[in-house]
Amino acid sequence: MVAEMGDSGIKNLEELACQWVEEGRKLGAPQIEIYIEDSQGLTLKVYQGQVEELRSSASKGVGVRAFHEGRLGYAYTSGLDDDDVRRAIREACENARYSAPDPHNCLPARAEYSQDDLGLYSPEVEETSVDRKVEMALELEDLALQEDPRIKNVDTTLYADSVYRIALANSLGFCGSYMGSDCHCYISPIAREGEESQSGFSFAVGKKPSDLDLRFTAREAVEKAISLLGSRSIPSRRTTLVLDNLIAAEFLGVIASALSAEAVQKGRSLFAGKLGEKVGSSVVNIYDDGLMHSGLATTPFDDEGVPSRKNEIVTEGFLRSYLHTTYTASRGETDSTGNARRGSYRERPRVSPTNFYLSTGEKSKKEIIGEIDQGVLVLYLVGVHAGANPISGEISLGAMGQLIKNGEIDMPLREITIAGHMLDFLHNITLIGNDLRFIPAMGSLGSPTLVIDGVMVAGRP
Amino acid sequence: MLEMSLVQKILKTSLRNGGDFAEVFLESREGYSLRLEEEKVEENTTGKESGAGIRVIRGESMAYAFTNDLNEKSLLRAAEVASAAARAKTGTVTIDLSLPGEWRQTEKIHFVKISPWEVDREKKLEIARRADEAARGSGNEVVQVIVQLGDSLQKVFIANSHGEAWDDERFRVRIYVQVVAARDGVIQTGYEAPGNLGGYELFETYSPEELGEKAARQALTMLEARPAPTGPFTVIIASGTGGVLFHEACGHGLEADAIYKNASVFTGKIGEKVASEFVSAYDDPTIPKLWGSYHMDDEGTSAQRTPLIEEGILCGYLNDLKRSMRDKVKATGNGRRQSYRHLPIPRMSNTHIAPGKASFEEIISDTHRGIYAKKLGGGEVNPVTGDFIFAITEGYLVKNGRIEDPVRGATLIGNGPRVLENIDMVGSDLDFDSGMCGKDGQSVPVSTGQPTLRVREMVVGGTEEVS
Predict the structure, then answer these.
(1) Alpha carbon of B167 to those of A78, A309, B27, B68, B324: distances in Å?
(2) CA A373 to CA A394: how far, in whole Å?
(3) Would you say residue A386 has pLDDT above 70?
């Protein structure tokens, strides 16, 4: 396995991509792009000291984009078989004939990409034995169970990693490849007291198994579960909200999708027409950095061959840039920001954030809570996908957390909702913590603890 | 798809380090999708995929290896990986492997009338255009319409160490129409998204024009809406759309994996009263051609109707092979997976609350002060506590037995079991919606259904304080 994934393997893949581009030309495709993915992965779950599930994967596939006079067609096939790829090339060309012409459909101009070490790959993922990975998961579960007697069981304890090779070539002469690795662990312990059960969660992410801090992860998840025992609702009120960093990061995902230039250009973003305007309070600085060293979404070039870069998205509350692909950039008469990404070879590239984060402030979470007279600390958000609308900006989410009184945690809360408008939330951010943390969602989303003033919290009397 | 002798070799290899059960799942899937936005076809995609997953169960452990290289060498290597992963700490179990018998095709109950292969790209585009034009023609405030149309054929072959083998074919077609309307800086959306286990006869039931108009009407109505009030209300949940609430807030808690881990509020409650006497609920993949239907699940168990709750009494869970073998109960045919890349786990199919006797008019006229949730968006639930939240994408105030002003930005918040106990009226108008259900990183087609229901009291989360 190790030998196959070495440097020689990746070069072969790059050559294959170039060959198929040539082949596509012979088959009559005017402009063509070949994307090859070859990945291997391991996911394992343990439950009550035993391996519950162990999943090993090997997956290869090819995605083909064909451009014909501004018409775009896409096709994909699993495997790397010559005949299948030829068929996909023909299908992509055929699909292009049935698409609408759009002058902005084009390949990016050829550009050189970074050859620096971006910390994408560690051999440790492949060098670590499966047995050792099982031990890590077992240790994580055990740490959670030992942490507090009220932790009676753990719903899910998971370890997962992957190693991937990507090659991309197009008929404008681009030819590139890279390989990367990642791994993460996740735990959701259940705390019980009397009839009541509450769950907590935490995870750790990294490029190699030794990046994962199991002790910290177990402790954080357990503390969350325990802290919610005895929770109840409170009467509705307008109050100050403190979003825990993992929750704030999840929340940032809604902002990231609304900042897609595609959403903006097609009239389905709350940020449409707001470029250059103030969209948040002056403490808000948001970056999208595709080159962040060891970042989970770091790549030397994006999924259509545009070099990755660091973009200033919001600076001191002012909206500086949307996230662009070559298509949206051409349409918006600007440059691509290197945000063309795809979930797998089965998808054509679309606008997606890379390492998208809100930059840190100075205070610790504890100091922040200490400064709040009356407020709600949010530890769980329920319904981020349903209750936060990136088009209208309306937010209405279920939450669990803690009531803050006179700078201290007062009591745990459940069955409350927080509601309002995304832009009001952004404008009312008053304080940002120093605890920036990334979650493996939509590429990679990161945020420190956030304080938002004047939010409507609904509950029951 | 594969030679039987190779299948047997794979099964043998996967059990050579011991194990209670081994299985080969082979899948090929081809599909087409188009996306119309700004009246232009901007995405036109064809895809073809095939792969195999090999599973070994040993006690409580499941090992799985998959590959999309379908040559003998790769398949046997996957089998070796699965067997190594399932390796026993001490000793091995020997299993007598009988050669799988005849391939069994499950009895056909869902028939395809118009195969996607018989409909050319131009016809498909015309369907999308008809929905688009109808939506755009519904009002000047419609600013964007997105139509996605997709079809697929999934072929599966399953063989296991019990000497059983099956194959099946599943055609599915689905359309998604989303409409964005705007006025004076307020943006609202509406959508319709029906699908079926079948072919393009879907559009004999749902005309594209009607879908476009319905989605537009939601968005336009919501432009008129005022901010939703906050606090406890009587809530009437519309037929069809509301089924998603039962699916999320109760259905997931009835899946055997959650039960086993004691991560469900319904653990150990069989035979107990968990809902008001008006409530009966079933999971039924045999309903002809619904989006969540099938002939057999992804482990070869025949589709069947499973009673979950009858007149308020909890009577069953949804399981898969692993859980049914362990608990020595009948498999309910709910072992489903997204693809060959995934392990089967207990999943719902067409979960629904059974119809009652009340008419829609009776339910409304009997309500003094409430919220009518005509369309629900997605939602989320904490299975351990049963707490949930749902967005109301189209909602109205109900006053003195009449439906009044539309309200926007509302959510329903509550607790699954408590809502079940609080249902005090059940309509006779059962209907279903199509959706994709996500669990453990796997997404499978499901239908959710219910008649019009009334819940005595639920918390509505809005932005307006009410006295």
Answers:
(1) 21, 49, 10, 19, 22
(2) 27
(3) no
Q: How far is B461 from chain A (nearest CA, A)?
A: 6
Q: What share of chain B is helix, strand, coil (3-state, %, to 5)?
A: 20, 45, 35
Centre a 10 Å sphere on the Cβ of residue B277 and count the other Cβ atoms it contains.
Answer: 12
Tell me if B389 and A346 make a contact (CB, 8 A cut-off): no
User: Which of A57, A98, A391 is nearest residue B187 as measured by Cβ atoms?
Assistant: A391
What's the full length of chain B, in residues?
Answer: 467
Per the CB < 8 Å rule, is B415 touching A79?
Answer: no
10-residue mean pLDDT profile of chain B (467 residues): values are: 86 88 94 93 91 90 88 89 67 45 71 94 95 97 96 95 89 96 89 96 97 96 90 93 89 92 89 96 97 96 96 96 89 96 95 97 96 86 80 92 92 88 96 92 94 93 67
The verdict on a CB contact (< 8 Å) between B46 and A153 is no
- Which residues between 146 and 165 in chain A have a beta carbon less than 8 angstroms from any beta carbon of chain B? 152-153, 155
Mutate to test the interface with B, among A42, A78, A80, A397 (most CBs of B within 10 A): A78
Domain with residues B4-30+47-105, CATH architecture? 2-Layer Sandwich (3.30)
Burial A151-163 (b: 16+ CB within 10 A, else e): bebbbbbbbbbbb
CA distances from B345 to A187, B313, B378, B444 (A): 19, 25, 22, 11
Closest-CA residue in chain A for B381? A382
Q: Is A92 within 8 Å of A73 (Cβ atoms)?
A: yes
pLDDT of the residue at B92: 41
Cβ distance B157 to B138 under 8 Å?
A: no
Nearest Cα residue to A184 out of A130, A239, A224, A125: A125
**Interface contact A66, partner B, CB < 8 A:** no
Amino acid at A376: V
Identical fold for domains B4-30+47-105 and B116-155+169-224, yes or no, is yes
Q: CA-to-CA distance for A438 and A209, rounded, in angstroms?
A: 17
For the domain B116-155+169-224, what is the CATH code?
3.30.2290.10
pLDDT in tens, A157-169: 999 999 999 999 9
Direct distance between the N- and C-terminal alpha carbons of chain A, in angstroms, rounded to an integer: 60
Could you state, in order of their start, the residue ranges of all structural domains in chain A?
7-226, 232-458
B332: Cβ contacts below 8 Å, ≥ 6 apart: B283, B301, B304, B306, B316, B317, B318, B319, B324
Q: How far is CA A117 from CA A112, B231, B410, in A?
A: 15, 55, 49
Number of inter-chain CB pairs under 8 A, A vs B: 249
- A183 falls in which pLDDT band (50, 70, 90)? very high
Q: Where are the domains of chain B?
A: 4-30+47-105, 116-155+169-224, 231-461
pLDDT at A403 over 60: yes
| Minimum Cα–Cα distance from B232: chain A residue | A460
CA–CA dist B97, B20 (Å, integer): 11
CA distance B109 to chain A (A): 31
CATH architecture, domain defined by A7-226: 2-Layer Sandwich (3.30)
CA–CA distance, B248 with B241 (Å, rounded to integer): 12
B221-246 pLDDT, tens digit each:
999 999 888 888 999 999 998 898 89
Tell which of B38, B411, B412, B457 to mutate to test the A interface (max A CBs under 10 Å): B411
